[in-house]
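Moderator note: this is an archived Q&A kept for reference. The question asked for a predicted structure of one protein chain; the sequence and the answer are reproduced below.
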Amino acid sequence: MPSPTSSGDQAYAAVREAIMTGVLPRGGKVTERGLAESLKISPTPVREALRRLEQDRLVKREGPRSVRVAQFDDAESLQITMIEDALRALAARLAAVNA
């Protein structure tokens, strides 16, 4: 997977990692402003990241500026990780072929 370049990509990667590792607990409420402060970036890229995470079904929007981390069980978390690993391997293979 290529390294994130835009602030939105970096925010997405950081928040997604925090969700997947449990730093942001399942069912926990987060705010755009709070995430922006913790990531030391403006709220705009965080808003973009949260929209992407909502599409990924990792967060659910509760209000205009707050979301709740989706509640998924350990089996779902394992499936997400396995799919992500398979996609990374495929991306690496394709990059090697096209290099």
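Archived answer notes: Residues 74-98 form the longest helix (25 residues).
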